[in-house]
Amino acid sequence: MRPESLEFLKRLLDAPGPSSAESRPARLWRAEAERFADRVTADVGGNSLASLDGAGGGEQGGQGVPRLMFAGHIDEIGVMISYIDEHGFCHFEPIGGWDTQVFVGQRVLLLGRTGLIPGVIGKRAIHLMEEEDRKKVSRARDLWIDVGATTRDEALALGLRIGDAGVLASMVQEFANGRIVSRSLDNRIGAFVVLEALRLLAADRPQAQVTAVATTQEEIAWQTGGGARTTAVALDAQVAIVVDVTHATDYPGMDKNRHGDIRLGSGPVLSRGSAISPVVFDLLVEAAEAEGIPYTLQAAPKHTGTDADSIYTANRGVATGLVSVPQRYMHSPSEMLDLADLERAARLLAAFARRLTRETDLVPR
Q1: Exposure letters 302-339 (e unless 16+ CB within 10 A, then b)
Q2: Tens of pLDDT along 178-201?
Q3: What is the mean pLDDT of residues 8-28?
Q4: CB 172, CB 18: distance < 8 Å
């Protein structure tokens, strides 16, 4: 990976941005996009858009190549303050799908009015529990965030209030064999990959008009579409590639008969089935094989669990594909993936975009 791209990726991953509070990473994303995109904008939903003008136009009715949207959501799971008690302890609710056992003893960063406020998630010490309580799974309602305040007024004076969001205070680390660990790989790396693909296309422009979008609220609203659906409608996209993460199955205890054989470093994962256009899927496979990019197939018989599910049915229908990056330890403070898979995914998206022409027939025949 380019050193400059890796440095940008680290800054993007470390920027706190849970669902509905994505402004910090979104500002970084737009600033990077302005280095090479023709237009960079944001909308009322917090989505960030970076566009390249294509040589073939984007009109409907067969007069131009299809308008292409690359979508990767930029939010992450987090927590939200639901109550501040008289002693200054902040009670909270999860944002997104947490395994609540992960919360115990974690440090947090809260997005207060005056900036980032550190805290720690508290729980009654095991020494003070009855034997039966020690066996119980921790629930968010039994935990709290301690910011060092001794009264509610002190907590408020720090800049906290009900509804403030936060994230676990886990920062990026590089591991052996090109692996990287972060709390926000799901799915800030989707936003990173679509922008890297646009960077590649800026140096060798396709016929199509391409817009990369860092979408919002996927972790809490993927079933209704969140920012991905509204952006697809606003762009009147005719083709969309969604970039997300998927579960790697290359660690102990995974049942490959149920979940497939998906490994870090094996390249992007291409979904087939629900919400996936067979035309787009075939073009992705053709592009991968032509470029020598390794890939894995994944079945999606009911739904993909990504923004593809909502984009596919937007407007009069959008020919949608899903490119996923293998990831271990999803929805934890220490998600892991292989940097080589990010590069391959970006190259695949760029190669796909260059295959779209005026003659591309998006109707399955």
Answers
A1: eebbbbbbbbbebeeebbbbbbbbbbbbbbbbebbbbb
A2: 999 999 999 999 999 999 999 999
A3: 97
A4: no
> pLDDT tens digits for 229-243?
999 999 999 999 999
176 located within any domain:
no
The kind and range of the H/E element at 23 are helix 23-33
CATH code for the domain in which residue 300 is found:
3.40.630.10
Q: What is the pTM of this model?
A: 0.94
Contact 282, 255 (CB under 8 A): no
Within 10 angstroms of residue 27's Cβ, the number of other Cβ atoms is: 14
Match 């760029």 to its residue by tokens.
350
Within-domain flag for 362 = no
**Residues present in the chain in total:** 365
A 10 A CB-CB count for 124 gives 11
Burial of 361: CB neighbours in 10 Å, binned 0-12, 13-18, 19+ = exposed
Does residue 365 fall inside a structural domain? no
**For residue 273, is it within any domain?**
yes
Q: Is 218 a catalytic residue?
A: yes
Backbone angles phi, psi at 222, to 5 degrees: -65, -30
Of 22, 76, 196, 218, the catalytic one is: 218
Instruction: Compute the mean pLDDT over every residue in the chain, rounded to the nearest whole number.
Output: 94
116 and 145 part of one domain: yes
Distance CA 10, CA 208 (A): 30
**Positive or negative: CA dihedral 200, 58, 46, 166:** negative
Pick left, alpha or beta for residue 295 (phi over 0 → left; psi -120 to 50 → alpha; otherwise beta): beta
Task: Specify whether the CB–CB gap between 161 and 147 falls below 8 A.
Answer: no
